[in-house]
Design brief:
By secondary structure, this protein is mainly β. The protein is built from no helices and 10 strands. The strands form 3 sheets. Strands 2, 5, 6, 8, 9 and 10 form a 6-stranded mixed beta sheet that branches. It has a two-stranded antiparallel ribbon with strand order 1-4. A two-stranded antiparallel ribbon has the order 3-7. It is elongated, with a radius of gyration of 17 Å.
C-alpha cells in the first residue's frame, strides 16, 4: 500500500472575519478559516479601546461568539491567531459595534 502525506505548509487564511454591528445584549459571531498541514489551531484575541491584544480564554475554534454583556461605550476589536508547527498567520482585525436599543 502507498500512503501519501501532504508536504508541511504554514497556515494560510481562506476566509477572513467580518466586522459586526449588534444591538446591546445580543451576541455576535465571528468566523475565520485556514488551510495548512498539519491542521492549524485557532486562538481568538480581543483588543479593548485600542489596548494590547489578549487571548480570549477557550476561544480556540474557527468561530467565536461574543458574550452578551458588552458595553456600547467601549471599542472592541477581534482577530484570530492561526498556527501550526510550520508557521503562523493573524487574521484581519475587525470591529464590533454595539447599537443601543431603540426607544419605544
Amino acid at each position: 500500500s502507498l500512503t501519501v502525506t501532504p508536504a508541511p505548509a504554514a497556515p494560510t487564511i481562506t476566509v477572513q472575519p467580518v466586522a459586526k454591528s449588534i444591538f446591546f445584549g445580543q451576541p455576535a459571531t465571528f468566523s475565520v478559516d485556514a488551510e495548512g498541514y498539519p491542521a492549524p489551531s485557532y486562538q481568538w484575541q480581543i483588543s479593548i479601546n485600542g489596548g494590547d491584544w489578549e487571548n480570549i480564554e477557550e476561544a480556540t475554534g474557527k468561530s467565536y461568539t461574543t458574550i452578551t454583556d458588552v458595553s456600547p461605550d467601549i471599542s472592541y476589536m477581534y482577530r484570530c491567531y492561526i498556527s501550526n508547527s510550520v508557521g503562523n498567520v493573524t487574521s484581519n482585525a475587525v470591529s464590533l459595534t454595539i447599537i443601543s436599543e431603540p426607544l419605544g
